[in-house]
Amino acid sequence: MSHFAPMTSDATPIWFVNATDWDNVKGSIGEVAAVFADHCGFAPKAGRLQLLPAADGGLAGVLFGVDCPDATMRDPLAAGKLATALPRGVYFFANPPPDPGLAALAFLLGRYSYLRFKPEPEPGPNLVAPAGVDVGRIERIAAAIAFGRDLINAPANMLGPHELEQAAVKLAEGFDASVRMVRGDELIAGNFPLVHAVGRAAAEAPRIVDFVWGRESAPRVTLVGKGVTFDSGGLDIKPASGMELMKKDMGGAATALALARLVMEASLDLRLRVIVPIVENAVSAAAMRPGDVIVSRKGLAVEIGNTDAEGRLILADALALADEDAPELLVDFATLTGAARVALGPDLAPFYTDDDGLAGAIADRAAKAADPVWRMPLWRPYDAMIEGTIGDVSNSGTGAGMAGSIAAALFLRRFVEKAKAWAHFDIYAWNPKPRAHAPAGGEIQAARALFDLLCERHPKR
């Protein structure tokens, strides 16, 4: 559920406490509750939770430890833990947490679960929106993240190319966007040879969804999302362990669609374009082969060094299409490389851009939104790693496993020329284990940070 509850007479207070204000909070909760908390060994440390009993056996209140005001918050979304740790009922913040908006959002995000194959769970805790926060905005963000998580969590037999296409089309049509699809051999006629080559081995045809929303003369912002609904690796097939999570290889598409939903719901003053290349990377007689050379939409001859480096191929054609419009801002999202995970782990999304101003703005919004990202270098000397032998560029390169995320970003950079600013996000789109604000499973990364940036740059007219 992604909405707040109305205030009720029996709503239970939540007190946020730290070592600095613990004595003051003790005065608020009463001597009996304070003694009980002490007997239970409660300490006002970040993440610590203590239920306080009422005289009738009910729940009188909740203590939740947070960082001291002068400390760096280890997890600004820690309040999401309350959504799963508390018993059913209605709760309200009795005193303000460090960031009431983030705490409220974390609570809504923490309530998420993927329920397609499971019965509806018993009702859990509900939260009254804290005073002074933008309730509608927080609820829309939580709903958009849940929408994206649902797409990623869906198994590949339930979300193949057709279903992902329909999810994108339904979203576009729900906001009266202009949408077109290019499927199967139409991709050859439409000059999307890389998308066709990657997806032609699958039972379901490869395709592109392309939709446009907003007034025609508004600043152009284009989002591209990698939509590989399952990645076997192709003829360079992955081991079984490598395929285990490959239903999530469309996490870039889910992120782009979640961000697009937020932009359209907020009626931001921009000309939004969303391009989602959709394929399954399968194995059959029609599969592309290592050593093949395919001339891309942009005209660059791409050598297939590894069929398991397919994401950058479909993004190349999609970025070339997007770049033809010379948008003010072009952003792509992709679950692109394992190297990014080795470098930064699952929680921190690396991003690449040549624009220092854009990089600073993204980093600033990401920090404020607790949507962590980290800028990585487009280190031009590494361009030599992806030079082709008989073609212009190789999709796998010669780095012997080093600088893999950078090499992939440099590959994509060759397909962007006219866009005034471009950023590439190499996201993981998955929580390997439960977090305070999310269960294990699909995750939307960087979308909230980008949404805040677009809200500032292109507010509703």
Key traits:
single chain; 461 residues; alpha/beta; nine-stranded mixed beta sheet
Helix content estimate: 25-40%
**Rg, please?**
24 Å
Counting DSSP E segments of at least 2 residues, the number of strands comes to 19
Enumerate the spans where pLDDT stays under 50 for 5 or more consecutive residues. Answer: none
Backbone shape: elongated
User: What's the story with the biggest beta sheet?
Assistant: 9 strands, mixed
Rounded mean pLDDT score: 96
Distance between the termini: 30 Å
How does the helix and strand content classify structurally? alpha/beta
Number of helices: 15
Structure overview:
This protein is an alpha/beta fold and about 450 residues long. The chain has helices at about 20-30, 30-40, 80-85, 100-110, 135-155, 160-175, 185-190, 195-200, 240-245, 250-265, 310-325, 340-345, 355-370, 405-415, 445-455, and strands at about 10-15, 50-55, 60-65, 90-95, 125, 180-185, 205-215, 220-225, 225-230, 270-280, 295, 300-305, 330-335, 350, 375, 395, 420-425, 430, 440. Strand 11 (about 295) and strand 12 form a beta hairpin. The mean pLDDT is about 95.
Helices and strands in order:
Elements: E1 12-17, H1 22-29, H2 31-39, E2 49-53, E3 59-65, H3 82-85, E4 89-93, H4 100-110, E5 125-127, H5 135-153, H6 161-174, E6 178-183, H7 186-189, H8 193-199, E7 207-213, E8 220-225, E9 227-231, H9 240-243, H10 251-265, E10 271-281, E11 293-295, E12 301-303, H11 311-323, E13 329-334, H12 338-344, E14 349-352, H13 356-369, E15 373-375, E16 393-394, H14 404-413, E17 422-426, E18 430-431, E19 441-442, H15 447-457
